[in-house]
Hints:
Two copies of one chain form a homodimer. Chain A is an alpha/beta fold.
Amino acid sequence: MQHKWKYWVHVxxxxxxxxxxxxxxxxxxxxxxxxxxxxxxxxxxxxxxRSLLSQVKPYDLPVVVEPSSPESALSDGISYLFVPSxxxxxxxxxxxxxxxxxxxxxxxxxxxxxxxxxxxxxxNSAVGKVTRASCSLSAKEVAAYTTCADRYFHFPIVxxxxxxxxxxxxxxxxxxxxxxxxxxxxxxxxxxxxxxAEMAKYADTIVVGNAVYEKGGVLLRETVRAVQ
Amino acid sequence: MQHKWKYWVHVxxxxxxxxxxxxxxxxxxxxxxxxxxxxxxxxxxxxxxRSLLSQVKPYDLPVVVEPSSPESALSDGISYLFVPSxxxxxxxxxxxxxxxxxxxxxxxxxxxxxxxxxxxxxxNSAVGKVTRASCSLSAKEVAAYTTCADRYFHFPIVxxxxxxxxxxxxxxxxxxxxxxxxxxxxxxxxxxxxxxAEMAKYADTIVVGNAVYEKGGVLLRETVRAVQ
Lengths: 228, 228
C-alpha cells in the first residue's frame, strides 16, 4: 500500500462543502478514477468532512484526505493524508506554520502522511487568496520552485494548482522537464477529455474537481479514458 | 564521501568577515575538529569567502560552505554545501524564497548539497534579526518544528542555533527526544569544554564558532576532547 499513490494517473477531488447530485458518487466510483481526494479551501469542518468520508466509504477506491487546516487532518480509515505546503505563499503559516501547530496539538499518523508542495497559480481562486500566493510566475520560476520542492525539500509530490481555471500547458511542461524524484500533479479547469489528455502529457497525475459537480460522472469517465 | 558528515561530532565555524589571529588556523586544523564550516550572516562576499577558502585549503579537513545568500553559494573544491532554511523565520524568503532564486540564477551542484533546517533562537543575534526569526519558542514548540523539519520536510539536518549565546539544554534535549532520521546540530556560546559536553549529550554534532576568535585554538582542542 505504502507507495501505490505514485501510480495514480487520475484523481477525483471532492469538496466536503459541496453536495454531489444524487447518483453522481456511484458514477464517480465506477469511472475508473484511481482515487478520491477529499479537499476544500473554504468551510471544511470535521463534521462535513466526516459526512463525506462516510458517503465514500462503501466504494472500493483509495480515499485521501488533504487537510487545509490542522483541524481537518482526519485520518480514520483513509489510505493517505496528503499534507500540502504552499511553497509560493507569501505567508509562512501556509509554508510551515500550520504544520508546526498540527504537530504541536494533534497526534500525527506519520505512516499515512504524504507531503505535497503546492504551487498555486490562480490569484482569483479561494486557495490563491487565502494563502496569499505569489501567482505571477514565469514558467522558469515555476520550474525553479519545482526543483526546490523536489531536490531541496524532498517533497514526494509537486502539485501545480490552477484551482478552477485551466492552466498554461507550457508551465506544466517546464515543471515536468526539471522534476527529478517527485511525482507531478496537475489540477485546475479540467472539464473536457482534451484538456485531461493535454495536461497528462506533462503531469504524472491529473486531478479533476469542479467538473464533477458541474458536469457529473459521464464527463469524469471521459477524462479517465483520455489519460489511460 | 557522500554521508560522512553524519558522523561528525564537532564542527568549527569560520566567518569570512572575520580575521583569525596568526597561527590560529593551524591550531584549528590540528585540534581534532571534524570539519570546517565557512559561514557568516553579515558582509559575506564571494571575495572574502574565496580568500578564506584558499587559507583553509592546505589543511586536511573537510570544508563546508554554508551560504547566507545565493551569491555566496560557492562550491569549488569543497566537500559539501550546507544550505540552510530558517523554518522559524516570519519571512518566506528565508524559508524558501532565496532557494528559488538560487536555483533560478545559478548552476547548482546537487551532489554537494545538504539541506539544513535552522531553528534560530537568539533574537539579538545578527541571524535572528536579519531573518526575523520567531525566537520566543517553548521547548515543545522547538520540538514541533524539529518534527516538522525531520518528518514532513525530510531535512537531513536540524540545526538549533543560539548564535553567540549559550542555549537552554532543555530545549536541545526536547528536540533530541523527537528527532527521527535527521542529525541534530547545536550551535551557540560554546566557549568551555563543560558547555561542549553538556550540549553534546543531546545534539549529535556541536558547532564552535566565536570562541575560536575569542579564545583561540587551545580552547577549541578542549571542546573537541570534551565531546569525543
